[in-house]
Amino acid sequence: MAESVALSPEPRVSHESALIGDELHLFGGIKDTIYSDYFPRNEIWTCNVREKKKKWIRRFTVGITPPPCRGAQCVVVDGIVYSYGGALSEYALTCLEDVYGLDPKNMKWMKVATPVDGKKPWKRHSCCLWAIGGRVIMFGGAIRNLPPNRLQCGAHLHAKVNNEIYEFVFEEGSEKGYWLDVELSGKRPKPRCSAAVETIDGHRGLVHGGSYFDGQVNDAFVIDLEKKQWISVNFSQTPCARHLHRICRISTKKVEKNCFLLIGGSVYGNSKLKGKEFRHVYVLDLDKRTSHALDLNPEIAPIQRHTLHCVENQDGSLQIIVIGGKKKDGNLKDILDEFSLVPSNESFVQIETEIRALPSAQDISKAPKKKSRETEREIEELGTDVLEVQDEGTQLEAGYLSSEEENTRLREQRSGLESRCSSLQRENEGPSKLQPKKKDVAFAFETQMSELQTRCNGCTSLQRENEAMRAKCHDLQTEKTDLAKAL
109, 147, 215, 433: which sits with the fewest CB atoms below 10 Å from its CB? Predict the structure, then answer.
C-alpha cells in the first residue's frame, strides 16, 4: 500500500469526510464548481485533528473502489466508512445505487453485496444518511428517471426529489447486506435533497432544511427509531431556508445537552431574503427548541458544499473543523479551517450559556438561599421553564383528546359503511327479489320488439305501393311520348 507525504489536499466541494477517533479521512468531490473534474476516490487524505500543525498524508487504496462522483454521503459504523449514492455526470443523469465500505486501517475499499432480486432504493445523490445506534438510515435525495412502480409505498416524488426512508441491514459482517423499508408514524417530511443531518443519540437523528427543487425549506425533524416516528421541531428564531449546509453536535461531556452548530448553506433563488442579512452560523438547542445566530471568532465566511466536524479537547474546549467548500463569490476556499471555542472566547461563552444544564429541584433545595437579584432572576427563569413545560403538556393532552374524538367518529363512520355494504350485498344476492324485476324487463323487451316488427311490416307494404306507382308513372310517360310522335 503506497503512501506519500504532501502539503495538503486540493480545495474541493461536494466531497466526503469521516472522523474516526483522532483521524480525519477526506476523499472524493469536485475540483471546481462546474462539475467537470472529479477527484479519484482511491485517493484518501488523512490527518490527526489533535495536532496543532496539521500534517496531511496522501494514501492510495486497494479493492473495489467507488467511481468518482459528487453528492455521495458517508457514515461510520464499527470503524468502517460506508459511502452511498452520488452523481456521475454534470447534470446528475447517472447516479450510484451501491453501498461501498472503506476499511481505514488497511485502506481497502469493498463493494457491499446486496441480493440481486432484493429491493434497492432507486439510484440518487445528495440524500440524508445517518449512523444511528449502528444502523444506517437513508432519507430523501435527488432522483432522475424514476419508474412509477419503484417509488416506495407512502413516499412522494416532487420534481426530482423524494422522501423515501430506508435502512441498510448488514449480514455476514460488513461485506453483505440488504435494504429494508422503514415504517414510521407522524408527519413525514416533504421531499428534499442537500439537507443537513446529524446523529443525536443511539436512536435519534436530526434533519434540517434542504432543497425542494422550487426553493429551500427551513423546517427541522427528528427521526426516532425507538418510538418509530417522525417528530416535527419548531425552533424559535428559526434560521432562514437553505440547503448545502452542515450541522454538527457540540454538546460537551460535562454538559450533555443536545445542541448543534449550523454553518453555511445556499439560499439561491430565495426572494424573501432580498435586502436582508443572511446569517450563516446558528446554535440550535434541541431540548429547549431555541436557536440564535452566532458571531464566530475567528469569523468563517459564508460557505456551502463543505463538511463539518466537532472535537472536544482535553481542556473542555470545542474544536470546530470546516473542510473544503465554496465561498459566496463562487471561488473554492482553503481545504481546512478550524477554530476553538474556549472559555475566554465570546462565542464559547454564548454556547455554554445555551447548553448549560438547569439545576434539579434537589440541587435548588440544597443551595444556600440568596436574596440577590441574580438568584431571583434565575428562579424566575426556572418558573417560566416549568410553565412552558406544563403548557406544552396541556397542549399535548388536548391534542390527544381531539385525536381520540376523531378516532371515535371514524370508527362510527366505518361501522355505518359496513352495515350499508352488508345490506347491499344481501339485496344483490336475493334471487326472489330480483326475479320479478327480471320478468318485467323481459316482457317490456318483447313488447317493444313486437311493435318494431309491426312497424317494419307496414314499411314493407308502403314500399310495394311505391314501386307500383313508379311503374304506372313509367307507362304514362311512354304513352305521352307515343302521342307526341303521332302528332
Answer: 147
Q: Which residues of 8-21 are buried (b: 16+ CB within 10 A; e: fewer)?
A: ebebbbbbbbbbee
In whole angstroms, give the CA distance from residue 208 to residue 82.
22
Residue 197 to residue 307: CA distance in whole angstroms:
11
Q: What is the pTM of this model?
A: 0.70
Mean pLDDT of 204-213: 93
Instruction: Show Cβ contacts of residue 78 under 8 Å, excluding neighbours closer than 6 positions.
Output: 134, 174
Q: Which residues are CB-neighbours of 5 under 8 A, at least 6 positions away? A: 55, 56, 57, 58
DSSP code per residue over 210-250: EE-SSSEEEEEEEEETTTTEEEEE--TTPPPP-BS-EEEE-
How many Cβ atoms are within 10 Å of 212's Cβ, its own excluded? Answer: 17
Distance of CA 139 to the CA centre of its chain: 4
Burial letters for 395-414: b for 16+ Cβ neighbours within 10 Å, e otherwise? eeeeeeeeeeeeeeeeeeee
Quick one: residue 128, left, alpha or beta (phi over 0 = left, psi -120 to 50 = alpha)?
Answer: beta
First to last CA, the chain: 130
CB 27 within 8 A of CB 45: yes
Nearest 10 degrees: CA dihedral of 88, 94, 95, 98?
-100
CB 338 within 8 A of CB 320: yes
Of residues 5 and 223, more confidence is placed in 223
User: Rounded to an integer, what is the distance from CA 95 to the centroid of its chain?
Assistant: 17
Q: Which one is predicted more confidently, 237 or 221? A: 221
**Hey, what's the cell of 268?**
439561491
Task: Quote the DSSP letter at residue 333.
Answer: P
CB neighbourhood size of 266 (10 A): 22
Provide φ and ψ at 299, rounded to 5°: -80, 140
How many residues are there in the chain? 487
**Bridge-based pairing state of the strands 62-63 and 108-111:** parallel
Dihedral sign, CA of 459, 461, 464, 465?
negative
List 405's β-bridge partners, or say none: none
For residues 61, 62, 63 and 67, what is the CA-based torsion angle, rounded to 10 degrees?
50
Question: CA 50 to CA 297: how far, in whole Å?
Answer: 20
Q: pLDDT for 406-458, tens place per residue?
A: 566 666 666 666 766 776 776 666 555 555 655 666 676 677 777 777 776 76
CB 41 within 8 A of CB 27: yes
Spatial distance between the Cα atoms of 277 and 33, rounded to a whole number of angstroms: 24
- Which uninterrupted H or E stretch holds 442? helix 431-486
> What is the grid cell recorded at 31?
475540483
Contact 98, 115 (CB under 8 A): no
Phi/psi of residue 123, nearest 5 degrees: -55, 140
